[in-house]
Design brief:
alpha+beta; elongated; 250 residues; 3 domains; two-stranded antiparallel sheet; 13 helices; Arc Repressor Mutant, subunit A
């Protein structure tokens, strides 16, 4: 367990836990303890298969390794689980922690790993020297499944305005799609476009009476008798027209 290394992306600085020492300490320990490949182990005379990105532990063990009180360990683990950074499976004998999207962030390049073993610091130096080129080639966030787990705040606000849906509803839909992709082994080139396509279908099917109330609450009748609708997003206006809610309106 003390051999090897993990990848730690600079994007971790955008995670709010970086400003809470106990949270970030436990998160890094979790990353370090996770298996890099699947293996079987014996725990309380049971043979357990532990996959990459998973590890067996307990609240007491994590407390002993980090110096963080057990009650705080439990609270932090629940927080990480609520943010879809980990999943937990607890039994009376052990706790199995799974890091969400482990494969996406920690897949090792065999050649790079071998070079690191023989060249050590030289590999790190070369990485830093070429960081500008690597950052230019970095996969855009919307091309990763993790996009659905943690929607950027600006995108969340955009969808909230666009679909007149609560942010909680949008997050729930996004998380459901992420779980579906994992369970079905589906990969998308653009997860933002995938989410928008599904949301267009789902929200178009929502209660038309509710949509009608939104549209007509913004109705404005001009002196010449024409009807206008103020501040109605084009997407909602098009849906209303499609369902003939405003077929006689202009």
């Amino acid at each position: 367990m003390n051999n090897g290394w993990i990848k730690l992306h600079r994007r971790i600085l955008e995670n709010p836990i970086v400003r809470k020492p106990k949270y970030i300490t436990l998160w890094i320990v979790i990353l370090l303890k996770a298996n890099h490949k699947e293996k079987e182990m014996i725990w309380n005379n049971d043979v357990i298969s532990v996959k990459s990105g998973q590890f067996i532990t307990g609240r007491k063990e994590l407390s002993r390794e980090t110096g963080i009180p057990e009650t705080t360990i439990e609270r932090i683990l629940k927080f990480l689980e609520s943010r879809h950074q980990i999943r937990q499976h607890k039994t009376t004998k052990y706790r199995l922690i799974t890091i969400v999207n482990w494969q996406e962030y920690q897949i090792l390049d065999t050649k790079t790993d071998n070079k690191r073993t023989t060249n050590g610091q030289q590999t790190d130096t070369n990485k830093n020297d070429n960081k500008d080129n690597k950052e230019k080639k970095e996969t855009p966030p919307h091309a990763k499944l993790s996009y659905l787990d943690n929607l950027p705040e600006d995108h969340l606000n955009e969808f909230h305005v666009k679909y007149h849906a609560s942010k909680e509803k949008i997050k729930e839909k996004s998380h459901d799609l992420a779980n579906w992709c994992r369970s079905e082994g589906k990969k998308k080139k653009n997860y933002r476009a995938f989410l928008l396509r599904i949301m267009n279908k789902d929200f178009e099917k929502r209660d038309l009476d509710s949509l009608k109330r939104i549209i007509f609450s913004r109705e404005e009748v001009k002196e010449n008798g024409t009807v206008k609708f103020k501040n109605v997003p084009n997407e909602l206006f098009e849906v209303a027209k499609k369902h003939k809610l405003i077929q006689n309106k202009s």
